[in-house]
Amino acid sequence: MTAVQIAAGVRDGKFSALDVAKSFCKQIEKLEPKLHALLHYNHDAAIRDAKGSDQGTKGLRLAGVPIVVKDNICVDNQPLTCGSKILKGYRSTYSATAINRLIDEGAFIIGKSNLDEFAMGSSCEHSAYGPTHNPWDTARVPGGSSGGSAAAVAACYAPISLGSETGGSVRQPASLTGIVGIKPSYGRISRYGLVAFGSSLDQIGPFARTVEDAALALEIMSGPDDNDSTTLSAAPEAYVANLDKRDLKKFRVGYVPEHLGEGCDPAIRKSVESAIALLKSEGATIVELKLSDPGFSVATYYIVAPCEASSNLSRFDGIRYGPRKDGEDLLQLYMNTRGEGFGHEVKRRIMIGTFALSAGYQDAFYKKALKVRELTRREYAHAFEKCDVMVGPTSPNTAFKIGENVGDPLKMYLCDIYTIGANLAGIPAMSIPCGYDDAGLPIGLHIQAPMEGEMEMLQVAYGMEQRLKANRAPALAGV
Description:
The chain is α/β, with parallel strands linked by helices.
């Protein structure tokens, strides 16, 4: 059942939140040994919280709906590891604003999900606690860094989960696991309670099996927050009520032909071209666009994000958080703690960022990257003068095998080649299922919109979802 259906059933008294919790707990306990999608799951706590959410469900939009939360988002008195040894044993002392807003609408947290350490990765293999497996093929990755959250929804652990996005970490795993994933406009959802990676890029975003469920979660979490000065001042829009209020024929839909060329898997190219043809047959105006080589966005991102990570992760020093590895002096304590606490990928990005910010290199790297980022933002704004939304592939490939790309960081970084631009520009973007390759692995359609253009993006996604009918669950889920 979808989140909308579950909430309606609980509100109407057809079943209780406790009934819902028992059902989803059974699914988790059956499949979790095969998937390792969760880092923290407590059956008794889930049952307790479900009983609590049964008290006064009238009018609550998520009454009795279980939520899986990426383990870099704070939930009061629950573990928070960010997939890293350096935070092993730490428990959050408060909940993120997004979490509070979901709970206020009747949801309860059923588990904290696995992720690439500190959200740095595209495969969910860089977790200190082991990789997550893709429900469509357990020998393959679910994408990253929010791979655990994506796998949890695909395997029906919960109808909604939360991930975080810095360069594609919601949309890419959504594509690889055949579900819906949304990165909102920068500032649409408060970052208060999200452990910082790249502060000018980070956003919390929902996963769901349907556009309607994802839109509902987005609507509830959105809005200004006094705890986050970067949130947008606009009040949340009624996304769910307006999903079907605009026909596809009324949209101008842009696409970049070069994104379907070299580097894009032929099965993905075929699936996305079919989606574009469907849009055209429905009366949408199709517009060819010209954007700079997405490789420029990748190069820019891998300067800006590591620089911000170098600064943000300096707080994890063994003094205030997590296990401490003592040394002869303070410097040795830092070196011992961070040397043992951080994994290879996190160390790599911290070193890249620290180097790019160092004396003599800041102008050559960081400041130049900021200039290219501004050009990217202007280029997207100019493109949206010609169209209402853009479509294309979410990922250049379907799910690859675990271990296949671990030794090639550049190949791993290029997994996000189509998604990074939206983060640099701050615009909303999402992935919806649009087909399957010859091996039966899911393919995602990428939909982007102008800043604060979530409503139009969701309307196109909803219209396409009704026609593509590609959001089925993997056989492993048993539904």
